[in-house]
């Protein structure tokens, strides 16, 4: 018979775990917000104030720290996710800008090629006339004008001509 009593007592908890009242939770939360680590003196003081076993107070702190860590990890994850979304948005905007600038560059190259083809045909007829009279100042002026036109095309300032 003593054996069965011993086995029954073995499974009984040493203290009766009860739910905390709102006042007890509030006091524990306030204490936790002040210091997330529980010093032994503080544990016994809280246990006495709350009418709880010190072990229950220690376990509450342990659980609270675990929940607090998970919440902070979730907040960090959300902040990183927001930064990633912003970076991806910036990347997309910059890719569009690069595409637009490449199109402008292609346009400028085409204008330069068409200008140089036109200028070449003009230059060849001018060089023939320059050879006849020995003067090349008109050719130099045309080349300078083409360079200014190309620069204005690249900078978008046609009024600078």
From TrEMBL:
Q: Known InterPro entries for this protein?
A: HD (IPR001356), HDZip_class_I_plant (IPR045224), Homeobox_CS (IPR017970), Homeodomain-like_sf (IPR009057), HTH_motif (IPR000047)
Please give a single GO biological process term from the UniProt record: positive regulation of DNA-templated transcription
Keyword Coiled coil set for record: yes
Question: GO cellular component terms?
Answer: nucleus
The residues covered by the Homeobox domain are 11-71
PROSITE patterns, A to Z: HOMEOBOX_1, HOMEOBOX_2
**Residue stretches in coiled coil:** 63-111
Q: Subcellular localization, per the record?
A: Nucleus
SMART domains per the UniProt record, alphabetical: HOX
> Which keywords appear in this protein's UniProt record, sorted alphabetically?
Coiled coil, DNA-binding, Homeobox, Nucleus, Transcription, Transcription regulation
Instruction: Mention one GO molecular function.
Output: sequence-specific DNA binding
Which stretches are labeled DNA-binding?
13-72
Entries under Pfam families matching the protein: Homeodomain (PF00046)
**Which CDD domains does the UniProt entry name for this protein?**
homeodomain
- Which protein family is it in? Belongs to the HD-ZIP homeobox family. Class I subfamily.
Q: By its UniProt entry, which PANTHER family does this protein fall under?
A: HOMEOBOX-LEUCINE ZIPPER PROTEIN (PTHR24326), HOMEOBOX-LEUCINE ZIPPER PROTEIN ATHB-52 (PTHR24326:SF522)
Function in brief? Transcription factor.
- Name by which UniProt lists this protein: Homeobox-leucine zipper protein
Organism this protein belongs to: Liquidambar formosana (Formosan gum)
- Mind giving the lineage of the organism this protein is from? Eukaryota, Viridiplantae, Streptophyta, Embryophyta, Tracheophyta
């Amino acid at each position: 018979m003593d054996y069965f009593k011993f086995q029954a007592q073995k499974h009984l908890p040493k203290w009766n775990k009860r739910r905390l009242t709102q006042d007890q939770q509030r006091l524990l939360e306030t204490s936790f917000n002040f210091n997330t680590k529980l010093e032994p003196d503080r544990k016994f003081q809280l246990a006495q104030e709350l009418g709880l076993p010190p072990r229950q107070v220690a376990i509450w702190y342990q659980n609270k720290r675990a929940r607090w860590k998970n919440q902070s990890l979730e907040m960090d994850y959300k902040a990183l996710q927001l930064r990633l979304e912003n970076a991806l948005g910036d990347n997309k905007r910059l890719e569009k800008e690069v595409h637009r600038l490449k199109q402008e560059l292609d346009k400028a190259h085409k204008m330069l090629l068409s200008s140089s083809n036109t200028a070449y045909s003009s230059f060849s007829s001018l060089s023939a006339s320059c050879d006849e009279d020995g003067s090349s100042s008109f050719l130099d002026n045309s080349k300078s004008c083409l360079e200014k036109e190309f620069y204005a095309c690249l900078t978008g300032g046609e009024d600078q001509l």
